[in-house]
Amino acid sequence: SLSASIRAYKFEHGRRYHAYPSEGTDAYLFPNDDPEQDRLDMFHHILLMGRESKLFLAPINPEGMRILDIGCGTGIWAIQMADEYPSAEVIIGNDLSPIQPSWVPPNVRFLVEDVEEPWEDPLPYDFIQCQYMAGSIKNWPGLVQRIFDHLKPGGWAEFSDYDIKLKSQDNTIPKNYKPQEMLNFLNVACVKIGRPLGMGPKLKGMVEETGFTNVGHEIIPLPLGIWPKDQKLKAMGDFMMLQYTEGVDGFTKLPYTQILGWSSEEVDVFNANVRAYVKDRTIHALHEYHFVWAQKPETPV
Description:
A hairpin with a 2-residue loop joins strand 1 (10-12) and strand 2. Helix 1 (34-50) runs antiparallel to helix 6 (231-259) and helix 6 (231-259) packs antiparallel against helix 7 (264-278). Strands 5-4-3-6-7-9-8 form a 7-stranded mixed beta sheet, sandwiched between helices. The chain is globular, with a radius of gyration of 19 Å. It has 301 residues and is α/β, with parallel strands linked by helices. It has helices at 34-50, 76-84, 140-149, 178-192, 203-210, 231-259, 264-278; strands at 10-12, 15-17, 66-70, 90-95, 108-112, 125-131, 151-167, 213-223, 286-295. It is built from 7 helices and 9 strands, in the order E-E-H-E-H-E-E-E-H-E-H-H-E-H-H-E.
């Protein structure tokens, strides 16, 4: 049973934050309340669209596999994996917050734990996913090594994350583009507590340096706004716009006030400008989102 302390959530600026034992300003900085859970589920949907409805890109057959989803959030990926692959032995999701549903497929389990602390389940896995964890991790090489160590020989891992530098194929991003400024300030705050953003472009190198083999790498565009002509990209851009317009307070309120020293009013004014820029259809900005999958060698190198 969960100890009461895990559910003793903290409330600040009208938002709810996790209660996992990490104190002070170096704790996880983002909310775990219903609006944030909705945002995370929406982002899962965006990534599904970008992957042509595939739940993973690694060349695996989940039948009979032990699978781990690191930082599982609402548990949506683990639950969909179990629905799609009921023959998987077990799909475990871990997270700092016990926000996952209690009614789940029979082969799904959720654990409350910090992935940078010793893992509760010591048995090795066939497949480990580490998705969208930037801003959450202090020691990225250590986490990649831990994932490697917890895989069976021949097992696979899949990592994915953003590049925080927004790109434009037609150079329509202005110099004072507020969404980029928001990301830059947020990264300053995250770096100050040792949990940097923008890990997407670094994933492939870290995975190769750790000793993984058969490394695959794919970048998918995440447009910001409904400017794309392609209907799928336009739909993804519409959802991405909502990530910013509805999610920006959750991204910024705690980091900007507690770490960067802004007033709550300054954050509100800044975020209003971020929302206005995101809605500008003449600016054709996009994120590059990196997927990297790789295999642990069958025999030690």
